[in-house]
Amino acid sequence: MVPHWVPRWPVWFFLASPRWRQTACTLRPSVEQRRWLGSRWLAGVASPLAYRGCSSASSHTSKVTLTKDRYPVQRLPFSVVSEEDLATFERIIPGRVITDPEELEAPNVDWLRTVRGCSKVLLRPRTTEEVSCILRHCHERNLAVNPQGGNTGMVGGSVPIFDEIILSTALMNQVISFYSVSGILVCQAGCILEELSRYVEERNFIMPLDLGAKGSCHIGGNVATNAGGLRFLRYGSLHGTVLGLEVVLADGTILNCLTSLRKDNTGYDLKQLFIGSEGTLGVITAVSILCPPKPKAVNVAFLGCPGFAEVLQTFSTCKGMLGEILSAFEFMDAECMWLVRHHLHLTRPVQESPFYVLIETSGSSAGHDAEKLGNFLEHVLDSGLVTDGTLATDERKIKVLWGLRERITEALSLDGYVYKYDISLPVEQLYDIVTDLRIRLGPRAKHVVGYGHLGDGNLHLNVTAEAFSTSLLDTLEPHVYEWTAKQRGSVSAEHGVGFKKRNVVGYSKLPAALQLMHQLKALLDPKGILNPYKTLPSQA
Amino acid sequence: MVPHWVPRWPVWFFLASPRWRQTACTLRPSVEQRRWLGSRWLAGVASPLAYRGCSSASSHTSKVTLTKDRYPVQRLPFSVVSEEDLATFERIIPGRVITDPEELEAPNVDWLRTVRGCSKVLLRPRTTEEVSCILRHCHERNLAVNPQGGNTGMVGGSVPIFDEIILSTALMNQVISFYSVSGILVCQAGCILEELSRYVEERNFIMPLDLGAKGSCHIGGNVATNAGGLRFLRYGSLHGTVLGLEVVLADGTILNCLTSLRKDNTGYDLKQLFIGSEGTLGVITAVSILCPPKPKAVNVAFLGCPGFAEVLQTFSTCKGMLGEILSAFEFMDAECMWLVRHHLHLTRPVQESPFYVLIETSGSSAGHDAEKLGNFLEHVLDSGLVTDGTLATDERKIKVLWGLRERITEALSLDGYVYKYDISLPVEQLYDIVTDLRIRLGPRAKHVVGYGHLGDGNLHLNVTAEAFSTSLLDTLEPHVYEWTAKQRGSVSAEHGVGFKKRNVVGYSKLPAALQLMHQLKALLDPKGILNPYKTLPSQA
Known about the structure:
2 copies of one chain form a homodimer. The first copy, chain A, is of the alpha+beta class and about 550 residues long. The first copy, chain A, folds into 4 domains: about 10-170, Uridine Diphospho-n-acetylenolpyruvylglucosamine Reductase, domain 2, CATH 3.30.43.10; about 175-290, 2-Layer Sandwich (Uridine Diphospho-n-acetylenolpyruvylglucosamine Reductase, domain 3), CATH 3.30.465.10; about 295-410, Alpha-Beta Plaits; about 415-485, Alpha-Beta Plaits (2-Layer Sandwich), CATH 3.30.70.2740. Chain A is built from 20 helices and 16 strands. The first copy, chain A, has helices at about 30-40, 50, 65-70, 85-90, 100-110, 130-140, 195-200, 220-225, 230-235, 240, 270-275, 310-320, 335-345, 365-380, 395-405, 410-415, 430-440, 470-475, 480-485, 510-525, and strands spanning about 95-100, 120-125, 145-150, 165-170, 175-180, 185-190, 240-250, 255, 285-290, 295-305, 325-335, 355-365, 390, 415-425, 445-455, 460-465. In chain A, a hairpin with a 4-residue loop joins strand 15 (about 445-455) and strand 16 (about 460-465). In chain A, helix 4 packs antiparallel against helix 6 and helix 12 packs antiparallel against helix 14. The interface between A and B is large, with 99 and 99 residues. Chains A, B: It comes from Carlito syrichta (Philippine tarsier).
């Protein structure tokens, strides 16, 4: 039996040594972090592949197996960092070249403790010019580089695989400017999302994205991984909200597209290339981003629906009746509710139903928003789309309702071995795979559950079993990926590709697209020094 | 004296012959088109360069001078279409190879009648496969191709410069699918925006973009030019709302990234490359786009402000108090109001003020929206940010108020020769250039006015004079571009580059960015056959 890693201890505890973190990072999780831990921290272990070779990660004292030993991956013929290289780096960033093995431990391991590199040097530039000098040298010397932000990624994209130089953005944490009329924030890539949130909230704006990992993740990393998160439904993708980027290319060229303009149609929108490219095409050093005004009121409704068709109709109705104030539409099935009640002893706030829906609104008038939600609730109850519902307007009750949705992952982890998938599908087909798998797996699975960001078409598909089983895994994979591909879905909705998913990208990208990805990589990084072994499928 | 082209006749009159238009296009402008004519149709003639060589375009009977004769541009060594080529095209798209000179007249001229090509063949494919076969042949034969949608572009990007083959998307006008829950529309590139609007509005959604040219423009062209338009402030850029594209590359390769997913983080977001690339990197053949729910209520407020600082503060306040229902924030200065009153005899609905602001809201509850606007108005009046204001909730009055803003261009054209610029600036600096130019030009200008989409940081800067004057032009250019560059603004906010602005792109893009643009062009279209002489600055 493969050991079942039940992470009951805050993962924050295992996080990077504070010695190399410039910004304060508490060793105990904050409320926000705990919320994240409760709901999201396991999501990155989406592919059972991560478990396959995971001999033991159940204790924070044990070392994570080296990626090169666990996975079938060959080191590419990059140079090895020499004393001369270190001396050069020391000249570029005096006192900020880290070679102490103890200090290098944390940045070599992903925060899920599933992949581990063996880099021997961490560089901590403060300026774009320093990044440029570093990359110019690495390019000349054919040294591989692993750009690293907050190291909170889910797919092993933020840590080295072999001995890549770790280029940390941690000291690039300055706000460059904030336009208080337009809400446009320009800052260095290493700014921590939560600190930026605080900064703009003091000025009556909010960041257009919010993640459980906000206490650690860097805005540059968010952009590099095209992070989704909790505000996606309302404020959309970073491809729309990021207005400008400054990027250092593989050869050290500084590509300054750091405009603070909502409209700019002067040629190709080059910044788009780097959003979601996971540091493989360039290192993002600064970001210009549009911040929406801070909402004055937040309300949450929790509803029971008699079927998935009614969930979809509720979503349509809700979009029509709540429209501009809708900020989240999450769903969970009856088995999810059973799990959170059984394992976490949470109270079901509405009558038992096959499906439950959580709707959040954010608006500029508490009264109006509550009235809209009230009218909507009355309508969906009268029409039978919803059989029961409750509305929360005070913060405490809102948190209780969100807890039901956010703690599903925690409940799942208490149910047994969990096979996890984070897929994107046309919303109409979102639940079919769950039903399909229940039939396919029969009694071999304890539970097959579906929940997630319905508003974004993002399904968290989870299967629990008494223990890990290769035969169950083989029944699941590649079936789930093939099924997703058949619906033209995405095998990675929001977590990206990184190292772990690079060989399943082909389920969502056609050969011509994969070829163009490789061509773009070859154009922008001909020596392949930037974040190697990531994002692009390994070429046979 | 260079003749002053005062286009009093509907420009639609000059538009393409209905014989080669599949979809109905009235020869008389619709109400929408008239609204556009009133406010936008001149905006494309942003650079006086377009006027410089414009000998006479004041009558629809006169021929537009050939671009190759008017501008200093050399034909690149592409092949010339042969009889064998025509036979090949005829095999690929039987009966849809147009060589009749009369039928070719309209698609050779831009709708502003400022540029004219001399193409001898127009191809009208219906399917992506046909586009692919055509481009494969053109690529092999080194034949240049000018992709053409509705030919409503403002910068001469949609018509040939020499004898490029015109590849029209007019017959690619089928809706492929519509997801009624998520509001995701998938359609061919040649669908006319207005028809798509009608299609989705019947299903309680709206298109995320709206343009005056919607009666003619194609969605593929909108995406290829990254069209802005009237809904930009609310629904953002096409980089955020376009979910997928199908594109045929220069060599005929079909790049199918036509997903209907809100979230997809499986590698590089390749579709972004083609949004705004004006047909120079590939031909968009199909589009997947996210449609927002149809708002139930629209309200408009028209306000007078004592200064530009107050305009900005009103904008900030408005974002805070109206937040999610704000759908337009337009401004105009006192000289604009003088012009529309003097030349068009429109009534000023509020007391005389140095600045005027038009605010539109769109929401899901008429009562709530009106109440929010009422509260906001009370607040800005009490605080002195606004000295007078009026609120319209019925359609007739809304149109009257919009008319004041939309008919400024018409009023300007009646004031004399107009020097026009469409620039994007940080909103805080938006009006400085107007003040600067008033001082700089002194009595040589009749009026220097500023108005535009303040919410998007998009300024329409206009200078009127008794007649065209080279010395006045030399005072304006490159000063306006240099000034814009100094503020890190954009010399083309929403109209793109096309042919007319390709040599001023350098004011908004740094050399490293221009170089990467050229590299991307070389990667995707190594022979340069796609829309040559456009978008990229001519290389010395």
